[in-house]
Amino acid sequence: MLKKLLSQLKKLSWLPLSLLLVSPVWAGVDFAGDTDKIATSDIPVEATPITLAAWINLETLSGDESGIINKWDADTAFFWRVENDGAIRFQTSDGSSRASETAATIISAGTWYHVALTFDGEAGTGGGHATHYVDGVLKTEDTTDNTYVIQDTADVIQFGLRAASSDEFNGKMSEVAVWVGVELSQAEINLLALSKVKGMPLQIQPASLKIYLPLDDYPEGTGTISGLTFIDRSGNGNDGTGTDADNDSDTIAEEVLSYQ
């Protein structure tokens, strides 16, 4: 029996390894651009470095801004979004003062991008700096010293929506990751962007990786993300729960990364 199996595999040796392995072929979520979101856990982010990363593909840039990863309560904590002109903006607040860092127009609709953001979490001289990367390339670095930090809230970290009905993400999202307590280096972010392999966040600063949602838990075309659980593969149990009031957000097939 074993000899027969080996003989069959030899006949298939021209096929890519990914086709010889039993692995999923779905890999992301397509948000519909309304109040749909995936909410995880309340993770403390005050006075500490953070790194945010995701693969995104916006359907359109018109209308509302598109929230990527957010922890925001009216005027506290942070949000990270794509502006409707294609710029990427990260904003923090200490409850009274705000600061933001914007990478100029670089995102176009209908294209996959790896986006990443680092924030040093410090205050005073030499602190309060944010840096944007797109496809592993440094796009903007804030060198202005800020005298405030993120003031934490009891809100959860969520994807696809900033608050109750603002910054509604209209497009596809995959491989969402949050590190707390570390700013990834440009070399590490470059590896995340250029490896084109799913699961790469698990190989980079794993002790500080607090959330990693590949968003590949369900087959393509479930019809809605409402009530679905998206497993946190970091091992910290910060699973995501989908909210989809209109049942118009969906799960999608992998389009950009490999499972090899």
The first-level CATH class is given as: Mainly Beta
Rounded mean pLDDT is 83
**Share of helical residues:** under 10%
The assembly state of the depicted protein chains is single chain
Largest sheet: 8 strands, antiparallel
Radius of gyration over C-alpha positions, nearest whole angstrom: 19 Å
Describe the model.
The structure is a single chain. The chain has 260 residues and is mainly beta. The chain has one domain: Jelly Rolls (Sandwich), CATH 2.60.120.200. Helix content is 9%, strand content 35%. Strands 1, 3, 8, 9, 10, 12, 13 and 16 form an eight-stranded antiparallel beta sheet that branches. The longest helix is centred in the first third of the chain and has 10 residues. It is globular, with a radius of gyration of 19 Å. It starts with a helix and ends in a 7-residue tail after the last strand. The N terminus is likely disordered.
Reconstruct the topology from this structure.
Layout: H1 2-11, H2 17-20, E1 26-32, E2 37-39, E3 50-58, E4 66-72, E5 76-82, E6 88-94, E7 98-103, E8 113-119, E9 130-134, E10 137-141, E11 158-159, E12 170-180, H3 186-194, E13 209-213, E14 229-230, E15 240-243, E16 250-253
Antiparallel strand pairs: 1-12, 1-16, 2-11, 2-15, 3-8, 3-12, 4-5, 4-11, 5-6, 6-7, 8-9, 9-10, 12-13, 14-15
Write a short abstract of this structure.
The chain has 260 residues and is mainly beta. It has a single domain (20-253), classed as Jelly Rolls, CATH 2.60.120.200. It is built from 3 helices and 16 strands.
